[in-house]
Design brief:
Layout: H1 2-37, H2 55-61
């Protein structure tokens, strides 16, 4: 019984340590990517998208549809 408790504690400690190391490596990678490429320049580029609420309004505004 004692071996299972020790094994459980060991697994919990190792899992926590590996998770913290994973987060640290991931943060370093993200910082390097940010230094290389910047923050992305804000929102999306290009024209404002058209919102279609239903198919009837789309066919009325676009003669190619319908």
């Amino acid at each position: 019984m004692l071996i299972w408790i020790i094994l459980g504690v060991l697994v919990a400690v190792l899992t926590g340590a590996i998770t913290l190391i994973w987060w640290k490596v991931g943060d370093q990678w993200a910082d390097d990517e940010y230094k290389k490429f910047g923050h992305g320049g804000g929102g999306p580029q290009g024209p404002t998208p058209t919102v279609i609420s239903d198919f009837d309004s789309e066919s009325a505004h676009n003669p190619d549809v319908g």
